[in-house]
Amino acid sequence: MKCKIIKGIVTVGVLTIMIVPCFTYKNEVDAVSTANTLGELKKELQDYKAKKSKALSDKKKTQSEINASKNAISVAQTEINTNRRKIEEAKIAIEKLNVEIKETEEKIKDVLVAHEVTSGDNNYLEYIFGASSISDFIIRYSMSEQLASYNDDLITSYEGKIEENEQLQIDLANREKDLDKKILDLEKAIDSLGNQVDAFDEQAIKFEAEVKSTQELIDFYVSQGCKDNEQLSTCVKVVSDTGFARPLKKGVRTSNYGYRWHPTQGVWKLHNGVDIGGNAEGTPVYSIANGMVGKVLKRQSCGGNMVYIYHTVNGVKYTSTYMHLLNINVKVGDMVTSETKIGSVGGTTTSTSHGGYDSCTTGAHLHLSLAKGWYGKDYQSYSTWISKLLDAGLSNYVNIPPYGKYFYSRVW
């Protein structure tokens, strides 16, 4: 791709950057008409509609995946909360069992001496011979044996429950780690899917703009009596002109054509025109020569409202481009003169930093580009348009004064 650069000494670092593709203000959909006849233009319209429909379908499908991931996170979080409650309950149960063990040991500690009879412990004999009768003696002996055995079984059971609860706490803690990882993975997936939704949404918006723009162009050609198999280049003639006028009654060049550090995106990019400041939003913007409106794009994410106008000046074809417009007063197919108000200066309220839709503007100004040929008719690719841009032409043809210099007239 051929990229024109500002004349002068360029550092090695910047020169390295300049080998990358040029794409400032590029329409991400790259939807440029290749139609030569009205019939082909109608087919393009159907293609745009199909692409828009697919983008909306993909957006809906991706949103469903996001919702499913959010539900899975909710289920996992609920399980974590439930498990944490179970862990607390297990801790309480362990404490309770420990207390019960101690209480049980206290209640029947005199019976435990039955296990110590072989050691000659008199406590056991005192308990047995403390009976008031033979029957009481037999009962006391039998109860001692049973209670001692029961106590062993009871303590063993308690200790088993304590082990179970302690293992439960370990298992639940490990499960929480697994669920935390699952939630983290799902959140990352949601972020990725969210970006896809935004991309599909942006595609749908841009294809909708192409649908509208193409439909307007079709309506225009039909109104001019063009037939489906008739060449568009011969069906409609663009009114010629002998020179260019400035697009504003006054202004100052605030940014040149060429590579620069992008003010909103923070990267080196080709600035494919000049910026003209010094005017408030709403200031009228005029066509720079007689011509025909070839394309109108609205609310683009980089460039905002844009108008492309075809000109024939002194027998040579040109395409002028106006970006960051606050509003647009023309439609595709309109014949314009150098006195036609095509829109007004935007760039502040349309900026994303002010709640707008245009991410490539930091304040009120007009972006103006001029290229040889009719972009979208004589050639279709963005790279060809870039190669045909007139970097010095805006001074030689439209006579926009150098950087920082004001002008106070549309003519010179």
What is this entry, summarized?
This protein has 412 residues and is an alpha+beta fold. It has 7 helices and 12 strands. Strands 1, 4, 5, 6, 7, 8, 9, 10, 11 and 12 form a 10-stranded antiparallel beta sheet that branches. It has a two-stranded antiparallel sheet with strand order 2-3.
Task: Describe the model.
- The longest helix is centred in the middle third of the chain and has 90 residues.
- The protein contains seven helices and twelve strands.
- With 412 residues, the chain is α+β, with helices and mostly antiparallel strands.
- A hairpin with a 3-residue loop joins β6 and β7.
- 28% of the residues are buried.
- The two termini are 35 Å apart.
- Strands 1, 4, 5, 6, 7, 8, 9, 10, 11 and 12 form a ten-stranded antiparallel beta sheet that branches. Strands 2-3 form a two-stranded antiparallel ribbon.
| Portion in strands | 15-25%
Secondary structure class reads alpha+beta
Element-by-element helix/strand order: HHHHHEEEEEEEEEEEHHE
Into which percent range does the helicity of residues fall?
40-55%
Sequence stretches where pLDDT stays below 50 over 5 or more residues: 1-31, 114-121
**Mass-distribution shape:** elongated
Over all CA atoms, what is the radius of gyration?
A: 41 Å
Largest pleated sheet: 10 strands, antiparallel
Number of helices: 7
Mean pLDDT: 78
Number of strands: 12
Subunit organisation of the chains? single chain
Distance between the termini: 35 Å
